[in-house]
């Protein structure tokens, strides 16, 4: 597993075997927290394995033990919790938790799972091992990308800066909104990896992608809006590594990773024989797809030469007759995880929130100290630095940072002035983390 190991091979096997689905009511419970920590370890180890390119045992273990469907169900369950239960918690006026980190862990759980799936779905056997849940995953990705397009039409993702007047739950809502943007970008990569397997996907999955959701047209809209790029002060910025970066003029013609994912997904969905046999090129689809010709510049073709085939396809499409919508009677599988979870919990959202308020999200000081100790063991600094996509940034002003909080060693700052200004917000988490280290 490389020079820097978080998990021994035998330990990773035990953690993967133990993965299971939790009812919405149990999210945030002690058993759920233990699995969340295990998932974070698997996540970090999978990134380390991919980075050193010496075999990827986490991906192999997930396939061997048939745990990809479990991860997909957990992903959709926490998505539903965030939509149905989290807003109820935020509306409770007299709920003022000492520390919102236990709730943040549940909110962050979706990001942890989609990040792990993005890392392992690069391998075709992982997509195949998802079995029927690939339908649910396609629906999940469609929901995220639809929100991404809608958000780009409303001014883009929220900024990280929070108001000093926000209470802890309002601040948590702001963090969840920003996290949603990053999750959607991960979902785009997962969807692209699914399209790599278009020759082995079931007819139901292909129909879902091409007919029900019309993903090629949605991907065209993503290219048009490019929500991961923006102009700020006359300068081009791109979102990567959880923050916006200014792109140097000499780099502005370079294809970004996310644009590349969209182009590859379009190539797979429009040019593979299996997809072409299923995709109905209506006048609506034709009008959308022909917009791609404006983006297929010589500079782009130099970077992705295979898109010359897509350019030829579009030239032919411009002259071709459109097809009327197909009205064939087809028996197809449909995704069932979201519908099943909603059916099981319909009318119970308030009860689930009340139970979690009383038994999960109001821990004692002792419970918080024990949890802080486990967090410190899970998020080892040497591993976090190894998997970090870039140098750390100041928690207050986002400038590149070189100094850590001397007490908890978790937060970074560029200068002492920023640390002093950020102290009120950081204080409670810092004290808990320091207590956790002393309790070891």
UniProtKB/TrEMBL annotation:
InterPro entries: UCP037948_Znf-MYND (IPR017333), ZMYND10 (IPR052298), Znf_MYND (IPR002893). One of its GO terms (biological process) is motile cilium assembly. Pfam families: zf-MYND (PF01753). GO terms for molecular function: molecular adaptor activity; protein folding chaperone; zinc ion binding. Its main location: membrane. It is found in: Apical cell membrane; Cytoplasm, Cytoskeleton, Microtubule organizing center, Centrosome, Centriolar satellite; Dynein axonemal particle. Residues 394-430 form the MYND-type domain. SUPFAM superfamilies: HIT/MYND zinc finger-like. GO terms for cellular component: apical plasma membrane; centriolar satellite; dynein axonemal particle. Keywords: Cell membrane, Cytoplasm, Cytoskeleton, Membrane, Metal-binding, Zinc, Zinc-finger. Plays a role in axonemal structure organization and motility. Involved in axonemal pre-assembly of inner and outer dynein arms (IDA and ODA, respectively) for proper axoneme building for cilia motility. May act by indirectly regulating transcription of dynein proteins. Belongs to the ZMYND10 family. Interacts (via C-terminus) with DNAAF11 (via CS domain); this interaction stabilizes DNAAF11 at the protein level. Interacts (via C-terminus) with DNAL1; this interaction stabilizes DNAL1 at the protein level. Interacts with DNAAF4, HSPA8, IQUB, RUVBL2 and DYNTL5. This is Zinc finger MYND domain-containing protein 10. It comes from Callithrix jacchus.
């Amino acid at each position: 597993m490389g020079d820097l190991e978080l998990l021994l091979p035998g330990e990773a096997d035990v953690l993967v075997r133990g993965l299971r689905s939790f009812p919405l009511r149990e999210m945030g419970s002690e058993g759920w927290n233990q699995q969340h920590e295990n998932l974070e370890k698997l996540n970090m180890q999978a990134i380390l394995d991919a980075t050193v390119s010496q075999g990827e045992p986490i991906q192999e273990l997930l396939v061997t033990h048939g745990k990809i469907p479990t991860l997909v169900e957990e992903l959709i369950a926490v998505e539903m919790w965030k939509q149905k239960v989290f807003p109820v918690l935020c509306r409770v006026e007299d709920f003022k938790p000492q520390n919102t980190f236990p709730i943040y862990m549940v909110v962050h759980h979706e990001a942890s799972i989609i990040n792990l799936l993005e890392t392992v779905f690069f391998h075709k056997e992982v997509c195949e091992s998802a079995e029927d849940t690939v339908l649910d995953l396609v629906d999940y990705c469609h929901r995220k990308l639809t929100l991404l397009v809608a958000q780009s039409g409303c001014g883009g993702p929220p900024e990280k800066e929070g108001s000093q007047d926000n209470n802890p739950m309002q601040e948590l809502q702001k963090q969840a909104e920003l996290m949603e943007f990053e999750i959607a970008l991960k979902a785009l990569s997962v969807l692209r990896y699914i399209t790599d397997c278009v020759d082995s996907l079931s007819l139901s999955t292909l129909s879902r992608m091409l007919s029900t959701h019309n993903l090629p047209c949605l991907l065209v809209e993503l290219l048009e809006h490019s929500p991961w790029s923006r102009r700020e002060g006359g300068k081009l910025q791109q979102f990567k590594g959880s923050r916006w970066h200014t792109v140097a003029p000499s780099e502005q013609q370079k294809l970004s990773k996310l644009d590349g994912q969209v182009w590859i997904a379009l190539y797979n969905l429009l040019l593979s024989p299996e997809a072409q046999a299923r995709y109905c090129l209506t006048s609506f689809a034709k009008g959308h797809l022909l917009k791609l010709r404006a983006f297929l510049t010589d500079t782009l073709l130099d970077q992705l030469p295979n898109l010359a085939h897509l350019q030829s396809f579009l030239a032919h499409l411009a002259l071709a007759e459109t097809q009327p919508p197909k009205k064939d009677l087809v028996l197809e599988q449909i995704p069932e995880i979201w519908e099943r979870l909603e059916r099981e919990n319909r009318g119970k959202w308030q009860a689930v929130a009340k139970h979690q308020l009383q038994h999960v999200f109001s821990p004692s000081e002792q419970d918080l100290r024990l949890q802080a100790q486990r967090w410190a063991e899970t998020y080892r600094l040497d591993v976090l630095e190894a998997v970090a996509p870039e140098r750390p940034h100041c928690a207050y002003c986002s400038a590149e940072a070189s100094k850590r909080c001397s007490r908890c060693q978790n937060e970074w700052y560029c200068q002492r002035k920023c640390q002093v200004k950020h102290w009120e917000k950081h204080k409670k988490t810092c004290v808990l983390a320091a207590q956790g280290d002393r309790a070891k």
